[in-house]
Write a structure and sequence with these properties.
The complex is a heterodimer of chains A (267) and B (321). Chain A has six helices and 15 strands. By secondary structure, chain A is of the alpha/beta class. Classes of the chains: A alpha/beta (267), B alpha/beta (321). Chains A and B meet through helix 4, strand 9, strand 10, strand 11 and strand 14 of A and helix 4, strand 5, strand 6, strand 7 and strand 10 of B.
Chain lengths: 267, 321
């Protein structure tokens, strides 16, 4: 089984709101003192792939990213977590290409890698959160896509897998033929592992392929043919919280119960 | 004539989300001089069929084997054909998991562009612009869709239903689309009981977070929720820790809720959580940290250790009834 895991480098989503600024003219977030990190759902995807390889005792994991040269960091981390291969498609020209451009680029890279059975992507990214890469990638590759997956196991017949995925109401188990795309969501079993120090050191000696857009025949000038950011701003939201006061905890709870009771009765 | 298409699920009925999608569609159609078509996939009950009829100019109900229960490949193929037949300029969907799963793929098949989780959709200079939260809710972006049709999934429950008064009943057409064979099969579908309505439709929600420290305190929260006739929910941290089912998760990547009252207990209020609760009418937090970001979004709140509050609060609300 060959699994390609797509990883996106993003601005650390844990940056508190008070430190978060946008460059309205460039229509992107200012990095400031914040780190760039691997998108959490992409980490969940890699963790899921690692667990599947561990359980099967065989298999190959290719970590793949599209981004600026600095996105090498997310792939080094994937190698430290023992991905077998890493490929970076370098796109320095545009820091925020549209979802279709990313999908076309990933599709071209996956074809060039060859022999991929399952493509995993995070369900969405913590920066722009478009949530479209998986679906568009599936269409570019003309294969099925199952979203919000937790993981999979071999199916009843060869060439199929059984995917467990979350829905609004609970979950579904879906049988699907490979190759296919899965978008991975977080759950209690795919919390990313921490790489061993020794593996981190060794990751820098492992090979890491770098391809350009032109290596893949992707036209860089089409990176906003699908959609573009017309405006970006920080919304002004002024909610003044009324803090419940009282001399004792009991008095505060009385006041709180009254406020809540009033709302419930008014409904 | 150009058409705005609202996509609805027969199974879901005329729920608040369907009403929001129809409302968004009606206003967009009126502002652009387009006709409104509702496409219902799967058998529609009377409430849904007549609800859609009252708002849309035309209603198409697509039924048949493969469309009664959701299957991503079958629904996508059917919708793709039905939208092409409509010469749609805009296709609107709700923000349930099924809509999110297929919207971008539908846009691709129609040669259009998609954007999701929209709080507003409007046409400007012949293009559709979508307003949505980004960076975990810390910023708002307006995304311009370059290709037509614009396929947009909207935060349906936060969008006003249409004012159907005075509008004639639209035509209803029943179709049975031809579906391609697919190897994708739903083997099992589990709906975790939350003892009542769907979380997205809940009027009162009691929600717990990381500060609870483990699964046990959720038992206490459940008693409080029962007295308040509330649904239970949780932050991502509590779900990831396995304390409660993943289906309880509220936030950017969980449920987007819009209750009359959202009571957040021991939830710090990371922006990704706020993104899921921003449409609540009143947010109230109980948290021992007065600087917790959640209080910036509260109408009122109590700075206190939840352990001292939940039991007595439950008792007072019970005796006040």
């Amino acid at each position: 089984m060959k699994i390609a895991v797509c990883l996106k480098q993003i601005l650390d989503p844990e940056v508190p709101a008070r430190d978060f600024k946008v460059d309205a003219a460039k229509r992107e977030a200012e990095q400031g003192g914040a780190n760039l990190v691997t998108n959490i759902f992409c980490e969940n995807a890699l963790e899921t792939a690692l667990q599947i390889r561990d359980a099967a005792g065989s298999g190959e994991i290719v970590a793949l990213s599209v981004g600026p040269a600095g996105a090498e960091d997310v792939l080094r981390k994937a190698l430290a977590l023992r991905a077998d291969q890493a490929v970076l498609v370098v796109n320095d020209a545009d820091t925020n290409p549209d979802p279709l451009f990313v999908a076309k680029t990933l599709a071209a890279a996956i074809k060039k890698i060859g022999g991929v059975d399952v493509v995993m992507v995070g369900r969405e990214a913590g920066d722009w959160g478009a949530g479209q890469t998986g679906g568009l990638l599936a269409e570019e590759l003309a294969i099925p896509c199952i979203s919000f997956a937790e993981g999979f196991e071999p199916g009843a017949t060869p060439g199929t897998i059984k995917v467990k995925r979350q829905t609004d109401a609970g979950f579904e188990v879906i049988e699907a033929p490979t190759p296919l795309v899965l978008t991975i969501t977080n759950h209690d079993k795919n919390v990313p592992r921490i790489p061993k120090t020794r593996d981190v050191m060794q990751s820098y000696r492992k090979p890491l392929e770098k391809w350009t857009l032109s290596d893949l025949g992707v036209d860089g000038s089409t990176s906003h043919a699908y959609s573009q950011v017309a405006e970006l701003f920080i919304p002004k939201k002024e909610t003044k919280c009324e803090f419940i006061e009282g001399d004792t905890v009991e008095a505060k709870i009385d006041a709180l119960a009254k406020r809540i009771g009033d709302i419930l009765r008014a409904m | 004539m150009s058409e705005v298409v609202c996509t609805l699920w027969g199974r879901a009925g005329l729920d608040r989300a369907a009403q929001g999608v129809l409302g968004a569609g009606r206003r967009l159609a009126d502002s652009t001089g387009a006709a409104l078509r509702a496409i219902i996939v799967g058998t529609a009950d009377d409430a849904l069929a007549s609800g859609a009829q009252a708002v849309a100019d035309r209603v198409v109900v697509a039924t048949g084997p493969g469309l009664e229960d959701y299957n991503p490949e079958s629904y996508l193929a059917a919708l793709s054909d039905l939208c092409k037949a409509a010469s749609a300029t805009v296709v609107l969907l709700g923000n349930d998991t099924y809509a999110q799963e297929i919207a971008a793929r539908l846009a691709h098949r129609l040669g259009g562009s998609a954007a999701g989780d929209a709080v507003a959709v409007h046409a400007e200079g012949g293009k559709v612009r979508v307003t949505r939260g980004v960076y975990g809710g810390k910023a708002t972006a307006v995304i311009e869709l370059e290709k037509s049709p614009a396929v947009v999934w909207v935060r349906a429950r936060a969008i006003e239903p249409a004012d159907a008064a005075g509008r004639g009943a639209g035509e209803v057409e029943r179709v049975t689309p031809e579906l391609p064979a697919t190897g994708v099969k739903v083997l099992e579908r589990q709906e975790e009981s939350k003892g009542g309505a769907r979380l997205e439709d809940a009027q009162v929600i009691v929600s717990g977070g990381r500060g609870l420290g483990g699964p046990e305190p959720f038992t206490e929260l459940q008693k409080l929720a029962d007295v308040m006739h509330a649904q239970m929910a949780a932050s991502r941290a509590a779900c990831d820790a396995g304390w409660v089912p993943a289906s309880w998760q509220v936030g950017q990547t969980g449920k987007k809720v819009a209750p009359q009252l959202y009571l957040a207990i021991a939830i710090s209020g990371a922006s990704q959580h706020i993104m899921g609760i921003a449409d609540s009418k009143v947010i109230c937090a109980i948290n021992r940290d007065a600087d917790a970001p959640i209080f910036k979004h509260c109408t009122f709140g109590l700075v206190e250790d939840y352990q001292k509050v939940i039991g007595p609060l439950t008792e007072r609300l019970r005796s006040a009834k």
